Amino acid sequence: MKISDVMTRDVQTIQPDQTAQEAARFMVSTDAGSIPVTEGDRLIGMITDRDIAVRGVAEGRGPDTKVRDLMTDGIVCAGIDEDVDTVAQKMSDAQVRRLPVVDGEQKLCGIVSLGDLARESEGEAAHEALEGVSQPGGQPR
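Given the sequence above, the corresponding structure tokens read:
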């Protein structure tokens, strides 16, 4: 099964020139811990609640800090044509609960979560990903 069969296609994004406060408000309203950062339809990074709360506060940054200054770049992505098991392994290795899905030009096509894997792949791929995500000692990306 391809990841395009299980991913969520309607993904809200944020722009790099928006503020940390705008990102945090979005996270509260959608009950999400991360948001893809895009320029046009091209994925350039992710911003997480941890980026804002831990990195931002540790560096003394306020709510008006631009997303580009807090976002995580160099993120792990799933390719739109990858199979579910490969993506589950990527999630496990990177210890993340969500992965953006991109095409060959890094255009954001969707996002896949552990929940998507659990609902659509008989749970095996989700179990594999969850085992890696749950391992202590990794550096989340």
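The mean pLDDT is 86. Try to locate this feature in the token string yourself.
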